[in-house]
Design a protein that fits this description.
Strand content: 5-15%
Helix content: 25-40%
Largest sheet: 4 strands, parallel
Oligomer: single chain
Number of helices: 9
Distance between the termini: 21 Å
Number of strands: 16
Structural class: alpha/beta
Length: 398
């Protein structure tokens, strides 16, 4: 669950009631004694036993583009190396190349901050995400509407003017040309292209594509997730996980480029975003649990950084990577606990600082992936999945 723009830890999972930096939000009790979170996340609060709240994230990148890359790729941009995004790494390690559905699906991504942060990098296009719900349903001003939630796969069906026989013939010709080209140019780019194209054709011809048809779900279920892009995205995520898709990401906050980037009107913005996040995330966990899938599905809640503890003159909070929060839940995680502690004013980490490599190494361990495994990069240098300096958070990995 990617929180585009950087969510305020002070108004979600690490409130500071009674301090001037705390703002107007109140804490509420959760299902775990002693753990309290924002009053605007009441449904999530009742599932705290599944969650490990990390309140001691500490990084140095306060720029949207660089921080987005760091959190999603595990490394800072270092040309000419093209580091792969987390979803591509996981898809390579755990995905089934024979599956009809892609191993990595990205729902409603907002790539403007750093397109390379969504790229398979040196792993090749066969591990690229399938993007759905991107740059669609624009209003009359050309802006994305937060209430539009068409999450179908673009161009899955051939034009009505082209017969099925013609489509099949054209695809056969294309496949023949691709095979001929690879016969004399069998490099990674060509092989990656053909593999990705073959997977696309497989999806076009497969009944598994019905996973993207949310109309199959009862109206009550769709309502429970929330009739908005993120809520329906979480419902789609559940449907994809049920069908064996390895990695699914759902973005909240990419509409109109604002999202969690609350430099002004922070409290109104976070309250509104929380109202979208809370039912969607809670219903996702509940439904995964009722289907016996929560214990095998790792949920990661994060953005690129946190927000300043001090409230600015526009009732907003600015970028703050020094001390902020992320959450891990579900598969492989010992829930019902908090990791780390920040100061009373929220400005510094007092206990158990966690770096980005530490977080990603923990996620790898929860998934049964060796974070020290190496892939050969586009410059011929072996690179580990996670920075070798990483130390996974032992107390939360079961």
């Amino acid at each position: 669950l990617w929180m585009n723009g950087g969510p305020s830890q002070m108004d979600t999972f690490d409130l500071k009631p009674g301090h001037a930096n705390g703002g107007s939000f109140k804490e509420i009790a959760t299902s775990v004694q002693g753990i309290k979170i924002s009053e605007h996340l009441p449904k999530i609060a009742q599932l705290a036993e599944h969650m490990a709240i990390i309140r001691s994230m500490s990084t140095k990148e306060g720029d949207h583009g660089r921080a987005t890359y760091l959190l999603r790729n595990g490394y800072l941009p270092q040309p000419p190396v093209r580091y792969p995004t987390l979803g591509s790494l996981v898809a390579k390690e755990l995905g089934d190349p024979r599956a009809e559905l892609p191993s990595f699906v990205s729902i409603s991504p907002f790539r403007n901050f750093n397109p390379a942060a969504f790229s398979p990098g040196f792993l090749g296009s066969q591990y690229a995400p399938l993007f759905v719900g991107e740059a669609r349903n624009q209003n009359t001003n050309g802006e994305m509407s937060a209430d539009s939630y068409d999450l179908t796969v673009a161009d899955l069906q051939a034009p009505k003017s082209v017969s099925a026989q013609s489509v099949s013939a054209r695809l056969n010709i294309l496949n023949s040309l691709n095979d001929r080209f690879i016969g004399t140019h069998a490099g990674p780019p060509a092989v990656g292209y053909k593999t990705a194209y073959d997977r696309a054709v497989l999806l076009m011809r497969s009944k598994a594509a019905q996973a993207f048809d949310l109309d199959e779900e009862p109206a009550g279920v769709r309502d429970a997730y929330g009739r908005n892009r993120f809520g329906q995205g979480c419902l789609l995520a559940r449907r994809l996980v049920e069908r064996g898709v390895t990695f699914v990401e759902v973005t909240l906050g990419g509409i109109n480029s604002i999202g969690w980037d609350t430099h002004t009107g922070n409290f109104e913005g976070v309250k509104s975003l929380s109202a979208t996040l809370d039912p969607a995330w809670a219903t996702l966990m509940s439904e995964l649990g009722s289907r016996g899938l929560l214990d095998s599905t790792l949920i990661v809640w994060m953005g690129e950084f946190g927000r300043t503890p001090k409230i600015n003159n526009n009732a907003g909070r600015d970028h703050y990577p020094n001390a902020w929060s992320t959450v891990l839940a579900g598969g492989g995680i010992r829930g019902g606990q908090v990791v780390g502690r920040t100061s009373a004013d929220g400005t510094t980490v007092l206990d158990r600082p966690v770096s980005v490599p530490d977080l990603l190494a923990t996620a790898c361990h929860a998934l049964g992936i060796d974070p020290m495994k190496q892939n050969v990069s586009n410059v011929g240098r072996p690179i580990r999945l996670v920075d070798p300096a990483a130390k996974f958070i032992e107390e939360i990995v079961g």
